[in-house]
Amino acid sequence: MRIGVDIDGVVSDSYKAWVKKLNRHFGTNILELKNYDMHLDFGVSWEDMGKYFEDNVATLFDIPDPMVGAKEGIEKLLRQGHEVVYVTARSLDEEVYTLRWMKKHKIPHEKILFTGFQSKVDYVLQWQLEIFLEDFLGNAQAISEVGVPVLLLDASYNQGDLPSGIIRCQDWQEILKEIGRRSSYS
């Protein structure tokens, strides 16, 4: 099975690490994100949030730990013969930081597609991905609408009812179980 995998919020525990840095910078005390668009939770403009990330990208992409079970889960998928294609909203300018983080944490990777905040749907279709692991509900909905099932990793900012084609998973163990269940039918 060819599996699409998002990085931030699925492989990298980015938001947890970023919230701490953002609280220090903006003088806030946000405990968890309610919005995927973090600037809303921090009460700052999109431009101010973007400038902070632009000025601190090397640190922000270096500090997160991997999501619990992500490295082991990806290794297991690869051992089972699945192909893992990372599709991230990060830009190609951020490739060096992304590869450095993947190497630092020994996350297996062969193909990483950088969308630069463009829709992931074109990449999903072009690469003929059969299932996608995502944390952003907006991306999950767009991907599922083109007929590709999505496993949505549960997060504080993606709550609510899910349309058909999207299954909420609490952790990487549930992701692996669901992929195992689906691959046994194919």
From TrEMBL:
One Pfam family, short name: NT5C
Which residues are in coiled coils? none
Which InterPro entries has this protein been placed in?
5'(3')-deoxyribonucleotidase, 5_3-deoxyribonucleotidase-like, HAD-like_sf, HAD_sf, Nucleotidase_putative
Q: What is its EC number?
A: 3.1.3.-
Keywords annotated in UniProt: Hydrolase
Active site positions:
6, 8
Name the species this protein comes from: Desulfitobacterium dehalogenans (strain ATCC 51507 / DSM 9161 / JW/IU-DC1)
GO molecular function terms attached to this record: 5'-nucleotidase activity
Give GO BP annotations, semicolon-separated.
deoxyribonucleotide catabolic process
Q: Does the keyword Hydrolase apply?
A: yes
Query: Would you tell me the protein name for this molecule?
Result: Nucleotidase
Q: Which family does the similarity line name?
A: Belongs to the 5'(3')-deoxyribonucleotidase family.
